[in-house]
Amino acid sequence: MLNNITILGIESSCDDTSAAIIRDGYLLSNVTASQQVHEEYGGVVPELASRAHQQNILPTVDAAIKRAGISLSDISAVACTLGPGLMGSLLVGISFAKGLCVSLGRPLISVNHLQGHVLAHFIQEQGAERPVPDFPFLCLLVSGGNSQIVKVNSYKDMEIIGRTIDDAAGETIDKCSKFMGLGYPGGPIIDRLARQGNSKAFTFNKPHIPGFDYSFSGLKTSFLYTLRDKLAEDSDFIEKNKADLAASLERTVVEVLIDKLSKAVKATGIRRVAVAGGVSANTALRNAFIARQRSGTWQTFIPPFGYTTDNAAMIAIAGYFKYQDNDFCDLETPPFSRISI
Ligand code: KG4
User: Which residue from 249, 279, 289 has its CB within 8 A of the most atoms of ligand 1, so it is best to mutate?
Assistant: First the structure.
């Protein structure tokens, strides 16, 4: 294995501008500038996101380099997110990365954002080393835009064996939170409320679709119709029941996710199971994984909270593996708003 490989990772696919330094698989720094500007709109506004990335990218990269205690000339390659994501946001990150590569005379590495989420499980921190999954393993990738079961054969060979046919788990939670008039993003709000509620208080429809695919649109409608019917009887229904509603919604989403994942484990015989993406921060989902680990059913891999949502450390670690394969890209490479794992 080569030594002193120092990768600068840049992530800008949505509303977080992030830069990280990984040296020989170990994280030296990970700096993220989040954008509050979207809160009042109840969702990410693409044009505002790309403008904020332009303001944030230079100070964020500068801070990551300083915190890592390295200088620009120590960087072996720059890895940046290729997609999927918002085109204007992606363009800021990839253009900045290209400029830096030209000025430093270093290669550019493009990273699929979704592969980055999966590979976050391989980031090591000095003095806090964590066990990493052996190949092959299954990864439940759950974010605002994706709900997939991925069979991970190697660092670069990943196969989607199940995916949502309509809404993603995170999107569903965010929408239901919006129906209740709570803030954005709904995931952390629902998680917090659910801790004080009764998860058996309400029953919502679960999907019945074949294979390892997911569907969440029926659950979303069922949640909406429950609110509509109960509000007709009592206009204070949401205020009086928001913790129970959050807990029941969370339980249903987690049951749907885990049921299909269990089916995939049985069918493939692969018992090493990881979870990744923004929704992997969810308490009930993490607890479901911990319960399976304790019962000896699965060997589970749960990311530290800092690697659940979008971050550049995951882009840098993916870049680190690609660097060792000489897997570089040319400077004409454009970003892609839609791209599969
Ligand atoms: O991976 P991510 O940061 O961004 C992309 O979608 O790429 O995921 C964001 C999603 C949002 O839907 C957010 O509500 C959800 O992750 N999320 C959570 C929690 N924290 C974030 N969902 C449930 N519980 C949480 N604690």
Answer: 279
Structure tokens at 172: 């569903």
pLDDT for 223: 98
| One-letter amino acid for residue 149 of the chain | I
Give CA–CA dist 287/327, Å, rounded. 37
**96-112 confidence digits (pLDDT tens):** 999 999 999 999 999 99
Three-state DSSP class for residue 18: strand
In this chain, the answer to whether the domains covering 6-130+307-324 and 137-303 adopt an identical fold is: yes
CA-wise closest residue to 268 among 244, 243, 298: 298
Nearest-atom index, ligand 1, CA of 185: 14
309 CA from centroid of ligand 1 (Å): 6
- In the chain, where are the structural domains located? 6-130+307-324, 137-303
Q: List 8's β-bridge partners, or say none.
A: 21, 78
> pTM of the full predicted structure?
0.96
Per-residue pLDDT tens for 256-275? 999 999 999 999 999 999 99
Instruction: Specify the CATH number for 6-130+307-324; select among 3.40.50.720, 3.90.470.10, 3.30.420.40, 3.40.50.150.
Output: 3.30.420.40
Low-confidence stretches of the chain (pLDDT < 70) are 1-2
State the fold for domain 137-303. Nucleotidyltransferase; domain 5 (3.30.420)
- CA–CA distance, 39 with 174 (Å, rounded to integer): 12
Helical ranges in 45-86 per DSSP H: 46-68
CA distances from 309 to 144, 154, 234 (A): 10, 22, 37
pLDDT of residue 71: 97
Which residue lies with its CA nearest to atom 22 of ligand 1?
Answer: 187
